[in-house]
Amino acid sequence: MGRRKVGRYEVISEIGQGAMGVVYRAVDPLIEREVAIKTINLEAAGDGRAEYEQRFYREAKSAGRLSHPNIVTIYDVGNIDSVAYIAMEFLEGLELRNLIDTDRLQSIERVVKIAARTADGLAYAHKHNVVHRDIKPSNIMIMRNGVVKIMDFGIASMSASSSRTVAGMLMGSPQYMSPEQVESHEVDGRSDIFSLGVVLYEMLTGKPPFRGGSMSELLYNIVHLPHMAPSKLKPGLPRAFDLIIARALAKNPAERYQNAADFAHDLRHYDTLELPEEANPTADAPTVMIVERLDSKPDFSSEAAREVQPVVRQKTEQKSNRLPLLLGLVGGGLLLVAVGASFLDRNPAKEPMHEATMQEPAQPLIERQVSGEPPPVAASGEGVLSLAISPWGEVVVDSKTQGASPPLNQLTLPVGKHLVEIRNADFTPYRVEIEIRAGESVSVRHKF
Questions:
Q1: CB-based burial, 175-200: b 16+ in 10 Å, e otherwise
Q2: Is the pLDDT at 187 greater than 50, yes or no?
Q3: 419: alpha, beta or left, given left = phi > 0 and alpha = psi -120 to 50?
């Protein structure tokens, strides 16, 4: 079969197909250089084609200015018969996806090298105001000589300040999206850092940190639920990775690594990072969490909803590229627990559990926090109702609509009993009676 052409490039063979088009191995006859040609079907943008095409060329041009050993080089961009194309550096190696799936990473040292070099490439791109927005194992290539290359800068979203999508297209791969991507907020380089944190987690454990039985559950877990500490899945993993992952996967971008260079630094120095001391079981001023369970509980399929993860806070005297100190443990939205000796000495029979009654067969998990000091959000004679609803629900308290959860996740209510109703048009309404006590926090979690 004779060779075909894409622009001036002579196609040798087809490398593969993706959601947006076909990738070819080709030759540039002008300089006899082997290239990879990635095609993008512009017709897929529908009515938004003109805007999509303009944006495609603008973003490809931005990516073409990047010159870094850990970023694939873009040579050319063009358009033929409603198909846009990018000519780029031809790479011979394996996608990181393949290495993870076949368990060929082999050592922590190799994982660190791949993740750190990827972070190096991202740091360079972010410095030049280019955000990838689709960092995932299939977009990271490991060449035969060990060099790491980030691919697809030419068709990922390049604007460092824009979160727009085109013609309803979802930009990015859901499993590796940052919370701000899921919620369609503006993103910057810290979104790529979150995505690389997901990739690192998967390299270390073989499993992604966030999972779900459906797309809505997966996205909800990314935004709301903590991950399981990687050492829980892989015993013997150095504790430093729990801290590095915790900072990379912080829900709030302000609590993440603020630049990819700091991420790379901590990866390369994981064995010398300052680690927190083990928790002191006789610490003063204990905070006790009483978990109230009724006869049954909702089926939270995500393991993250039942596990604990590190929560990190920055020490004021530390530099920005230092890892923050571990202060406590939380799990699946559970409250901070620091059980001291005074609590262990108590007689459980003298500590009555607070009760709640159900109005519907479904049963919630209700958590109540009792501490020496009331939560700062609650005034005298008030308490706090915390909500975790999946995928979403309209919140009605005592027949008054309070808003939709998410994003609503906390209400301040007067002391006394209240009827809480969660409504979703696709499901049977869910009702539960709660009792608010002064200075206490009650959580209601429900999954439709």
A1: bbbbbbbbeeeebbbbbbbbbbbbbb
A2: yes
A3: beta
**Lowest-confidence range among 83-97, 136-150, 230-244, 374-388?**
374-388
pLDDT number for residue 346: 38
In total, the chain counts a number of residues equal to: 448
DSSP state of 58: H
Number of helices and strands (H, E) in the chain? Answer: 10, 21
Structure confidence at residue 172 (pLDDT): 60
Name which of 181-190, 256-265, 336-345 the model is least confident about: 336-345
Q: Which of 172, 164, 180 is nearest to 132 (CA)?
A: 172
C-alpha span between 210 and 221 (Å, rounded): 6
In whole angstroms, what is the distance from residue 369 CA to residue 328 CA? 15
Distances (CA, A) of 334 to 63, 138, 212, 254: 43, 34, 19, 22
What six digits make up the tokens of 104?
């060929």
Give phi and psi for 100, each to the nearest 5: -65, -45
Distance (Å, whole) CA 321 – CA 308? 25
Q: Domains (ranges, CATH) in the chain?
A: 5-89 (3.30.200.20), 93-275 (1.10.510.10), 355-447 (2.60.40)
Q: CA 286 to CA 145: how far, in whole Å?
A: 54
Pairing type for strands 393-397 and 382-390 reads unpaired
Read off the pLDDT of residues 340-361 as tens digits, 9 standing for 90 and up.
333 333 343 433 333 333 333 3
Q: Which of 324, 204, 322 is nearest to 265 (CA)?
A: 322
What is the rounded CA–CA span in Å between residue 393 and residue 448?
9
pLDDT above 90 covers a percentage of the chain that reads 44
Are the CB atoms for 264 and 197 separated by under 8 Å?
Answer: no
pTM of the predicted model over 0.70: no
Q: Which of 134, 152, 242, 262 is catalytic?
A: 134
- The reply to whether 101 belongs to the active site is no
From 137, 128, 126, select the one nearest 173 (Cα to Cα). Answer: 137
Tokens read off for 351: 């500590």
Q: What confidence score (pLDDT) does residue 294 get?
A: 34
CA–CA distances in Å: residue 7 to residues 26, 80, 214, 308, 392: 11, 7, 41, 54, 48
Convert 223-238 to b/e letters by CB count within 10 Å (16 or more is b). Answer: bbbbbbbbbebeeebb
